[in-house]
Amino acid sequence: MVPVNLSSGEIPLYAEFLCPERDKLNLKISDHFSNSVIFGQQGVFLPCGPEQPLDQVDKVISCLYEFNDNINKNNENHSIL
After folding, report:
1. N- or C-end of the chain: fewer Cβ atoms within 10 A?
2. Are residues 36 and 66 both part of a single domain?
3. Is the pTM of this model over 0.70?
4. Boundaries of domain holding 39
5. DSSP state letters, 6-67
6. So what's the pLDDT on residue 76?
7. Residue 27 sits in the same domain as residue 56
């Protein structure tokens, strides 16, 4: 399990693990939780938390907008925003 520094205010919003057999585990989980498939394939974790400096939050937001603009310029039929 990835450590969480509770004393500095970090909040474990989900359980995060490193798993060398990730694909096999995802197959097993998807047998029981159908929504896990799309999150496993398309989900991303963005930097967040109470100790995240606001300038870093702004940088992530700017990256998301830039990425979305590039998708739209390439006439792709999906948007992240």
Report:
1. N
2. no
3. no
4. 1-44
5. GGGT----S-----TTHHHHHHHHHTT-THHHHHHHH------STTS-HHHHHHHHHHHHHH
6. 64
7. no
